[in-house]
Design brief:
mainly alpha, 2 domains, single chain
Length: 226
């Protein structure tokens, strides 16, 4: 969440989908999500708006020795997260003593970004999500509630399902199964890598170093089905 929080503050509204194969962590994820924005919108929270105002005032007054490297990073991050004209106006008025922190607290509510956030949890078929061949195709969600929804049991498009069914009906093997069909190409005798049973006693014949009769016996043994 922290990695994307600056991006989220550029949105007027946020609908966050949490997708998992089980709902075991839904409640914990929901609390983490809402807690992140509650801290962001609370001016008095650690690393919140008041901390940003104080750190920036120290920088603007050129008291650089009072700032650590983390303070500078936080200030630059705060400019991105709180960098809208309304908050900037509050800062300038607060810095000059025109308004108090209580006024900042009450008026900053109008400039909260995003102004509305929604957490939506959804379960999805784990196998389909991991092994779908077309993951970039859009997913159709049947019905969404404000809090929880569910995706269809399969991400697979209708076209890809029909193609797989036709391949199965035609007896085609999956792409990962590269076994040679029966009756096509040469057949090997015995275990893969072993010599033909009838040629075991005349090992040299199968490699073309024996007489013609021995070679013929070996070829006959190889062409005989078990």
């Amino acid at each position: 969440m922290d990695a994307y929080l600056t991006l989220f503050t550029k949105l007027s509204q946020l609908r966050f989908y949490y997708v998992a194969t089980r709902d075991a962590n839904f409640e914990r994820a929901k609390k983490l999500f809402h807690g992140t924005f509650q801290r962001l919108w609370n001016p008095a929270a650690p690393r919140g708006l008041f901390d940003y105002f104080r750190t920036r005032r120290t920088w603007d007054e050129r008291n650089y020795a009072k700032l650590s490297e983390h303070d500078v990073l936080f200030m630059n991050q705060g400019k991105e997260r709180f960098g809208n004209p309304g908050v900037e106006n509050l800062y300038q008025r607060w810095r000059t003593g025109e308004i108090t922190e209580n006024t900042v607290r009450s008026e900053s509510v109008k400039f909260q970004m995003p102004s509305q956030v929604t957490f939506i949890s959804a379960t999805v078929n784990g196998q389909a999500a991991l092994f779908e061949r077309h993951p970039h195709q859009p997913v159709s969600v049947a019905v969404k509630s404000s809090e929880e929804t569910s995706f269809p049991g399969d991400f697979t498009s209708g076209k890809s399902r029909r193609m797989r069914q036709r391949r199965q009906e035609n007896g085609a093997r999956p792409r990962h199964d590269q076994r040679r069909p029966e009756g096509i190409g040469p057949r090997f005798c015995g275990t893969m890598g072993s010599l033909p049973p009838l040629a075991a006693g005349i090992r040299s014949s199968c490699f073309g170093r024996a007489g013609k009769g021995s070679q013929q016996s070996c070829m006959t043994a190889c062409s005989t089905k078990p």
